[in-house]
């Protein structure tokens, strides 16, 4: 799976974790490993321009998704082919304000918005109450699983580091600790 990210927002953030959230969401939705996704992080001014042009709404927003179109219906079901899913555009400045209001980190907000954008690229919407329940239910499940998997990976890494330090101080690493 190819995920490209371009940070044009001027805000220093953990791009790797944003890509990880996108990859996790795509994997959770059983998207082909040959799929391609583009992500762009933009300034509030750029997002406001996109919001006006494509949604006819003024001011910036947090996330916009631009699907590349439907999958090739004539493709052989047994053969996977590369598919460009589309673009997710995020506005970290706008997201930062939302994160402050929600009482969580910018990274957490960007993960949420990334999962939201992925679901839009996959055809989910929230215009009608039933659609909203389905999309936000999926979004909440994927985000909770991503958060749990990320926390478990951090615990494993922390344990490995502690084990390495313990082995080093006990002289089990081949050196004399005296």
What topology does this entry show?
Layout: E1 2-7, H1 15-28, E2 35-41, H2 44-55, E3 63-67, E4 83-90, H3 92-102, H4 106-121, H5 129-169
Throw out a few tags for this protein:
178 residues; alpha/beta; Collagenase (Catalytic Domain); four-stranded mixed beta sheet; 4 strands
Structure overview:
With 178 residues, the protein is of the alpha/beta class. It has a single domain, classed as Metalloproteases ("zincins"), catalytic domain (Collagenase (Catalytic Domain), 3-Layer(aba) Sandwich), CATH 3.40.390.30. 53% of the residues lie in helices and 15% in strands. The chain contains 5 helices and 4 strands; from the N terminus they run E-H-E-H-E-E-H-H-H. It has a 4-stranded mixed β-sheet, sandwiched between helices. Helix 1 links the parallel strand 1 and strand 2. Helix 3 packs across helix 4 and helix 4 packs across helix 5. The longest helix is centred in the last third of the chain and has 41 residues. The chain starts with a strand and ends in a 9-residue tail after the last helix.
Entry summary:
The chain has 178 residues and is of the alpha/beta class. It has helices at residues 15-28, 44-55, 92-102, 106-121, 129-169; strands spanning 2-7, 35-41, 63-67, 83-90.
